[in-house]
Input
Amino acid sequence: MRRILIHIYCISFFSIIPVVALASNDTSDKDALSRQVQELQSMVIEMKNDYEVRINEMQDKIARLEGKDSKAVDDDSLKKELVQLLDEEGYQPASPYTPGYPSGGKWQNLMLDIGIIGDSLANVTWPERSIDEGRAGSPFAENEFADRISLREIELGLQGVLDPYARADFFLTSEDGGSINVEEGYMTWLTLPWDLQVKTGIFRTSFGKMNKVHRPEINQIDYPKPIKNFLGSEGQKEPGISISKIIPNPWDIYSELTGEILTPSDEGVKGKDQIYLAHLRNYIDITDSSSLEFGLSFQTRDISDTDDATLTKRNFRQTMEGIDLTFRWDPPGQKLYKSFIWQTEFFASQRESGSFDEAGFTEDVKDINSFGFYTFGEYQLTQRLFAGARFDYSQFPTNDKDSEWSISPYLTFWQSEFTRLRLEYTHLERNSVTMPVEEGDNALTLQATFTLGAHKPHPF
Amino acid sequence: MTKGKFLQPTVIIYSLMILSIIFLDYSYAFAKKINVVTTSTDLRSITEFIGSDRVKVENITKGYQNPHIVDAKPSYILKLNKADLFVKVGLDLETWSQLLEDGARNPQIRFGSPGYVDASIGAELLDIPMTKIDRSLGDIHVFGNPHYWLDPLNSKTIAQNILNGLRRISPENADYFKENKKRFDNEIDTHLVKWLRKIKPYSGTKVIAYHRTWSNLANRFRFEIVDYVEPKPGIPPSPSHIANLIKRMKMEDIKVIIKEPYYENKVPNFIASKTGASVLTLPTSVEGIKGIKDYFVLFDYITDELINAFVEQGINSND
Output
């Protein structure tokens, strides 16, 4: 009896110990226990597979010893029949692929990708206005390509990988056959620690969504009015450094934070004042066919102004905020034929301004608060034909009393992936307190854009 | 043995069992799965066979999607950011993937790194351009036809490339993956004999195709693609080309048009209405049509549908 009790005690004791040991851990070890059970299950499955392989091998050995190599015989006859079927007439021998095979792509892959984009316009405006007419003191930019045919822009792209860690991208432009400028020229380190990427050079800043896109590649003929008025006539590009990081989050949403320090290249304000910019980009797949992108932008800078008489200098601060929203619909199985995009951006600016008195002291310091936005929608009618319309409204960072708005319906025809035609009508109304404008402007523009050479896919 | 002496070994055995559970290293069974991202569903299917329960595989393109034109969505960047292995079809089929690779911030899966697999290395290629190449040829692939996975024999090469990649990043599981690759090769041989036997009576049958997707399939299964709905790759058909195609189909008694799920039906249906031909939408990839759950089912479906179309059109078998 005593021995029976000892046996029962030992069996119980050694059965209970693991349970007690596991249960004595805190509640989070319940998950660990569940994981271990799963891992033990995987181990059992693997052991089962391993034993099956070994059993098959043993069966083969036995069959061979018995002179009946059944599985091997089956395998042999299968291979013979396969060779016979494959060798029959009608088969065209193919070439096995090895990288570096001499082909048209070899030089390009070894060195760099070269592409040229040509963007030409034919433009008529009414009421009549020539490019020589200006409006002194007017906040409104004139259309320097009005009423003529021009090769508005040629862009030469040189892009390539520098080494396993970095790449370089250069874009040189010439407007209207004039001098060559650097549109962008930067180097990017792609695989830094902590999921960082760093870019340095001259680049289009990360303020908003459309500013990063080169003009020949945007969905309309020209940048929206708020971009031209708030960021520059061709958007904002500056020399600087850009650091970006993918932000981990529990919802598994793509969230990228970018911080940039830029040296402004505005004429007359060169100095030590930098532009500090931040952009947060969030992207969500709503369904397989639709997605939403939501971005927030912020930038701040000092703008120097000097009194001509006393040479007194003062910094005025400007900050800008932006919100961008992009909705896309692209059914994956019909991407060639159907798509829709809706994009909107809001811009807000707060800018100090003031004047100098006779002694050189600043006076009449005030804040100019300005606002602008654009919104456009574009729908794909057929494989090659797209229809869209954009509405712009914009005040001015230096003048919150004047404003302009425009509406631009357009049609885009893609002859191929490399050649595009676009017809766009624009009606523009200007509201000026200082210089009243009696009637609006109208423009009808035909754009022809082509890509020669490497044509990289556009960032999404 | 007396009952007293039975107690001591019992205690020892139980103790050893407890100790082994506590101290033995089962890390290979407890190890997290290898995260693999493939560009296509076919590569996913083959990777799942080779890697089995030691891999977790996600694909970027859908089986019914045109693999040439895929948006480089930021959500794909997140997948690649976490990937241990990235498997591509290659041959410039996925020009969009460079944006994802650059944005992924994952040195492990960049070109030349252990986690980068180009599935096309060593594959038998067709349609390699031998003339001067420029865009007047349409959307040409300079390295050859990239739809090489549609030749089942090429799947052994694809599987070998995937095996090499898995072995590089998980050498402790190399033998396991190798055994699975051996089984995959045997499965392919077995199925290929079945498919070739089925379609052999119709070898030499002429068909029209929409795009130059099917060269490797036609070459392996011995039917002949004599013309295309697209006059050149990526160029939509013009009225004159459609008229010539109808004329040719009538003259040469061509009765079947094969097309991919992601191309339009209007032009093929129009041609069919004028010629009495059948329009056959065939999946180009796993999950290209509902129910095509793996690489073997893909060819089961394709061969069955081809034979059904040939029979329906009264095309005589060679038996």
